[in-house]
Amino acid sequence: MNRSDPFALARTAVRNTFDRAGGSYEAAALLQSSVAAELLSRLEPFDFAPAVVLDLGAGTGRCSTQLKRRYRRAQVLALDLAPGMLQAAARHQRWLRRFERICADAAAVPLRSGSVDVIFSNLMLQWCDPPDEVFAEARRVLKPQGFLALSTFGPDTLCELREAWGEDGHTHVNRFLDVHDIGDALMRAGFTEPVLDVERMCVTYPDVLGLMHDLQAIGARNVTAGRARTLTGKGRLRQMRERYEVHRRGGTLPATYEVIYAVAWNGHTGAGSPGGGEVVIAPDQISHRRRS
Does 289 fall in a domain? Predict the structure, then answer.
C-alpha cells in the first residue's frame, strides 16, 4: 500500500473486512444483486460454450451459481480474497451445479496462463485501485479471444455521503475511477474492443445510519490509508448526519451509485462485438433506478 496516497487500499484490511461480512452480506446486498443480474444479461448476446469460467471476486457465490446454471458443462471457479465469503458461498453449492472455490488475490490468480474462457467480475474492481494488476492477470489467464465482463463503481458513487463528511483531513469514502480510466486501463492491459456504459442507481434510506449499517454489513468499510484512526466523535457524527439531511426528498435520503459496466476481448475477434474502440452510452440513455 502506498501510504503517501490517502486513498490507497491495504489488501490485508480489505480481506479482513470482507472476511467478517460473509454472514451478513447477502441480506444487505440488494443493489449488488441488481447489478449482478444486469451484468449477467450482458453475456446473453454471445453464444459462448466455455470450458472454464472464472468468477473473479465471487463473494458469497450467488453469481457463481448463476454462471453454472447458464454454462452447465463449464467448470466454474469462484475466486475471492476473503475466506469468510467463500465459506458463505458453500451454502449455494448444488449437486448438479457445483463450482470450485479458490481463496486468492485477483492480482495474483493461481491459474495457468491461457486456461480460462470467460471472466465475470461483479463489483470487485473498486477494491483493487489501481486496476492494472488485475487486468494484467485477467488477460494472462484468459485464452486467446477469451471474454471479460465486469462491473465497478464510478466517481459519483456515494457522493452524498462524501459531501456530508466534508473536508476534515481524513478520507471517508473510497476513490472510484471513471469510465474513461477503466477503458484506458483495459487498453493498456492489451484488451481489445472494450465496450463500456454507465448507469446511475439510487437506494433510499429513512436516515443515514441505515446506509452506514448496510455498508458495514456488506464489508464496505473504510480501509483507505487516510481514514481516521480513532473513533468518530458524537459531535462529528451529528454534523455529518445534519449535512446529509439537505438531500432528503419525500421523507427519505438517497444514496447514489454510479455503476460502470465493461466487456472486452483478449484479442481481436471480428465477430460478436460492436466494433473497435470504446463505446459509452449517451447521458440521456443512462437509466435511474430506485430501490423502495
Answer: no
- Close Cβ partners of 237 (under 8 Å, ≥ 6 residues apart): none
CATH at residue 137: 3.40.50.150
Residues 12-52 have pLDDT tens digits of: 999 999 999 999 999 999 999 999 999 999 999 999 999 99
Question: To the nearest 10°, the Cα dihedral for 210, 211, 214, 219?
Answer: -140
For residues 84 and 98, give the distance between their C-alpha atoms in angstroms, rounded to a whole number. 18
Q: Comparing C-alpha atoms, which of 98, 144, 117 is closest to residue 50?
A: 117
Q: Specify the pTM.
A: 0.89
Query: Residue 8: phi, psi to the nearest 5?
Result: -60, 145
SS3 75: strand
Between the CA of residue 132 and those of 128, 184, 190, 203, 217, what are the distances in Å? 9, 10, 11, 30, 28
How many domains in the chain? 1
* DSSP-assigned letter for residue 1: -
Domain that holds residue 71: 11-155+176-202+257-269
C-alpha to C-alpha distance for 75 and 132, rounded to whole angstroms: 26
Domain assignment present for residue 112? The answer is: yes
Cell of 87: 465459506
Q: Which are the contacts of 96, defined by CB distance < 8 A and separation ≥ 6?
A: none
**Residue 193 to residue 196: CA distance in whole angstroms:** 10
Q: Show the cell assigned to 257.
A: 451509485
Query: For 66, which DSSP code?
Result: H
Tens digit of pLDDT for each residue in 56-114? Answer: 999 999 999 999 999 999 999 999 999 999 999 998 887 667 899 999 999 999 999 99
pLDDT in tens, 146-171: 999 999 999 999 999 999 999 877 88
Pair type for strands 100-103 and 75-80:
parallel
Selection from 135, 70, 65, 52 nearest residue 94 by Cα: 65
